[in-house]
Design goal:
single chain, alpha/beta, GMP Synthetase, Chain A, domain 3, three-stranded mixed sheet, 6 strands
């Protein structure tokens, strides 16, 4: 887990449950009440294990808790991490720029047909990208173009 990230007892409980069902290693857990979901950031390379064959693990978690789950595969590379967050949207390019005022911006170029997927219903996917990019790489703004 990254330095400076504090988890609540509730988040830690969800992490323990997720790891016991999936066998995947969880780096982070975010309970997102606004979009009624729990977001897990998992160790690189463990996405298939986390989801399970045919989505079995996620279905089981949903049945047990009644919550919706989203999984993001971690990457130390901020560009790859943003790509992972916005999957399954087809990303052309991610540019990260540091402004003179110190703010860091990520501009994500998406295939036109996938813009809606990248943004998500009511902005849920772009919001997830913003929260995680800020949390892990101090990127203050994520724009979809």
């Amino acid at each position: 887990m990254s330095k400076g990230i504090r988890l609540t007892n509730e988040e830690l409980e969800y992490m323990r449950l997720f790891e016991s069902i999936t066998g995947a290693t969880v780096r982070d857990c975010i309970i997102d009440g606004k979009f009624n979901r729990i977001i897990f950031v998992i160790k690189e390379g463990e996405l298939g294990m986390a989801i399970g064959k045919g989505g079995r693990n996620i279905s089981l978690l949903k049945r047990i808790t009644g919550k919706n789950y989203e999984i993001v595969e971690f990457s130390e590379d901020p560009i790859q991490f943003i790509r992972n967050v916005l999957k399954p949207a087809s990303i052309r390019e991610v540019r990260i720029t540091k402004k003179p005022d110190g703010n860091v911006i990520a501009v994500v170029s998406v295939d036109g047909k996938d813009k809606g997927i990248a943004i998500g219903k009511n902005g849920r996917n772009i919001e997830k990208a913003r929260v995680l990019a800020k949390r892990y790489f101090n990127i203050g703004t994520v724009l979809i173009v």
